[in-house]
Amino acid sequence: MALEFRKATDDLLSACLSHQEIAEAMGASVASFRQARLPGDAKAYRKPPDGWERAVIKLAEQRATRLQRLAERLRETSA
After folding, report:
1. How far apart are the first and last CA of the chain?
2. pLDDT (tens digit, 9 = 90+) per residue, 24-39?
């Protein structure tokens, strides 16, 4: 089952990525990003930008790499 836009972006936001960072990676405005996160029956809802999945993958991988490096540095200095 495909991951839904809202769930995927909730995960990114919880990883300390801002709406601005995510919107830019998707080539969208912050407003249209926020509208795409609304429930589908909301009056202001907009469909997610094309290619949003690739942008989420890239952001998640970049964040994971940064966090892994941080963990490794901390492990080395606290041992």
Report:
1. 42
2. 999 999 999 999 999 9
Interhelix angle 5-14/52-78, nearest 10 degrees: 30
Report the distance separating Cα 64 and Cα 3, nearest Å. 18
pLDDT at 29: 97
Contact 62, 71 (CB under 8 A): no
Give 79's pLDDT tier (boundaries 50, 70, 90): low
Q: What is the DSSP string of 36-55?
A: HTS-TTSTT--PPPTTHHHH
pLDDT at residue 62, as a whole number:
93
- Packing angle, helices 52-78 and 19-26, rounded to 10: 130
